[in-house]
Design goal:
Length: 374
């Protein structure tokens, strides 16, 4: 790494650290004030609240990092421009793109960090935060009942199995009043009825008066009946994680619900694989969310491309004009992204275009403006 790169990175990372810490502190303080009454009703203690915000931090970073990077880039670039350092670098034969290479590298690095947070930390963090918020409630107040999901209908189109579950415990993976209908490749059909089902040794165990009805392929003969107290079914591919995804995605009936839901790319792709014949509205909503999971982390690169032309072109007299213009364009980017995602979720535009159009438009705009810097 050249001496110039180390200098530029040092001048960027210091304000970036201050911006990240300041925005996180402000965000958490604002959220704490708005949620304080809710925390008191939930009887949370100080350590519970601290743990709550620790698991919520990855979700906050998705919003805070791009904004902090924008302001840190503007500060660093305008500071260099104000002291004529950028002019000296260019007079020495260093081009604008070479000068800004460390900034773009930071944008790419943060993009990969955001992708990892978005995929592996945010979905589990949202569930952990909800669990922490309800941990102090007594069973009589409904803490235990919230673990049970009732009247579930699970259609596994890929394997031709339909599950009807009277009640399902998302913590212990216990089922009550289970009825499963399974259509086999040879045209025959099997129906299972059980009082209980539990996940044990990575296999579903049906117990408590298990009844099996085997319907022949002809469809005219009477089914063969059999009954047992226990029935182990290792051939079933529906694992608890899959049922959990089904519960989460089945609740996405509107754009508002889709924005709140924290789904990983793996969950969405598996759901689309298991349900190849989804209705058009839900398919568009899920595909838009899937493409958005890939597009969102690249916000950091887009922010860098937006900040570079305004910060690098700012002189002694127009620093605040450049900063204000860049912030305005950045907020316009976020507004356009939300509008585009709403259009994609509503089937008005293609999902991939809805997710990637804001990134492409503002990235091209930033590149063009950077080439026009004199």
């Amino acid at each position: 790494m050249r001496l110039l790169d180390r200098y530029l990175l040092r001048e960027l990372l210091v304000p970036l650290g201050y911006c990240l810490g300041g925005f996180l502190l402000f965000w958490i303080s604002f959220d704490l004030l708005s949620e304080l009454n809710h925390f008191q009703k939930q009887r949370l203690q100080v350590l519970d609240v601290v743990e709550y915000y620790l698991v919520k931090t990855p979700e906050l970073l998705l919003v805070v990092i791009p904004i902090a990077l924008l302001l840190a880039l503007l500060y660093a670039l305008t500071n260099h421009a104000r002291h004529q350092e950028l002019t000296a670098m260019r007079a020495a034969g260093v081009g604008v793109w070479r000068i800004t290479l460390p900034y773009l590298a930071v944008g790419f690095a943060f993009s990969f960090i955001l992708f990892g947070l978005n995929e592996f930390c945010v979905p589990s963090g949202a569930e952990a935060a909800e669990e922490i918020a309800n941990r102090r409630l007594s069973p009589q107040e409904g803490a235990a009942r919230r673990q049970w999901q009732t009247n579930l209908f699970f259609n596994n189109t890929h394997d031709n199995r339909v599950w009807q579950i009277g009640a399902y415990n998302v913590k212990t993976h216990e089922m009550r009043d289970l009825q499963m209908d399974w259509r086999l490749p040879d045209g025959s059909r099997q129906q299972f009825n059980a009082d209980r089902a539990t996940w044990t040794n990575r296999t579903w165990l049906l117990w408590g008066s298990v009844q099996k009805l085997a319907f022949p392929p002809s469809g005219t003969d009477l089914p063969t009946r059999s009954q047992a107290d226990l029935l182990l079914m290792p051939e079933l591919s529906e694992k608890p994680a899959r049922i959990k995804s089904e519960i989460k995605i089945s609740k996405l009936d509107s754009i508002k619900d889709a924005k709140k839901a924290q789904l990983s790319i793996k969950e969405i792709r598996h759901y689309l694989q298991w349900h190849p014949r989804l209705e058009a509205k839900k398919y568009a909503l899920l595909m838009t969310k899937l493409h958005n999971r890939f597009a969102t982390p690249w916000t950091c690169v887009v922010v860098a491309l937006i900040a570079i032309p305004f910060g690098a072109a700012s002189g002694r007299l127009n620093v605040f004009v450049g900063v204000a213009s860049s912030i305005f364009i950045c907020f316009a980017y976020f507004i356009l992204r939300e509008l585009s995602l709403a259009l994609g979720s509503g089937s008005y535009v293609d999902p991939w275009l809805a997710a990637w159009a804001p990134n492409m438009f503002f990235s091209v705009t930033g590149i063009i403006l950077t080439f026009r810097i004199r």
